[in-house]
Structures are given as C-alpha cells and as structure tokens.
Known about the structure:
The chain has 114 residues and is mainly beta. Helix content is 0%, strand content 58%. It contains no helices and 11 strands. It has strands at 3-7, 10-13, 18-25, 31-37, 44-50, 53-56, 64-69, 74-79, 88-96, 101-104, 108-113. The strands form 2 sheets. Strands 2, 4, 5, 6, 9, 10 and 11 form a 7-stranded mixed β-sheet that branches. A 4-stranded antiparallel β-sheet has the order 1-3-8-7, with no helix packed on it.
Amino acid sequence: QVQLVESGGGLVQAGGSLRLSCAASGSIFNAMGWYRQAPGKQRELVARISSGGTNSADSVKGRFTISKDSANDTVYLQMNSLKPEDTAVYYCNARDYSRGINFWGQGTQVTVSS
Length: 114
C-alpha cells in the first residue's frame, strides 16, 4: 500500500521560512515533488526531483529548494523568503514510471501573512 505522509505546513509571516517533508512508502518512486493549489486556481508544479535532477517553477526559483533522502524516500521542500502569494495547499507527488501511476499526499496548508 502506497503512503505519502506530509508534514511541516503552517502559518508564517512574509519573509519567513518553512520546511515541508513527505515520507513515501509502498512502491519504487522514480520522481517526487511538490505541487500547490491556491483557492480558485489550478494545481501547479512547485518543484520536482528525479535521477535526472531538479526543476522548479519560476515563481519559486532562488527561494525554494527541493531535496531528497533516498535512503528513506523522503522529499523536502525548504521554503525561504515566503510571500503571501505562496499561500496554498501543498501536495506531495510521487511517480512510479513502471506502473504509470501518480500518487498524491493528503495536502498540507501553508499560509503566509503580510
């Protein structure tokens, strides 16, 4: 059974930092990442990491860093210099290419106050 367990969301003032964690289990994941969805908006990619490297949205470059502990299949998102527009529900994503399946975490709320 695949599980993605997220933690680390919360309320922070603009300019502050948060670190999200996502521990994955139950499959072999070829890529992991974070997406976010703000009210009234579509879910969007924040950052992703795979054996090919990392990529991130232009809106977070220079502020957010994605990393992974491969021994534990845990992915982290270090978020610095947070802005009110970063407010959203953040979802962990993990991909199993061999089965062609995307897995999603339950989501964690990040709220940045101005």
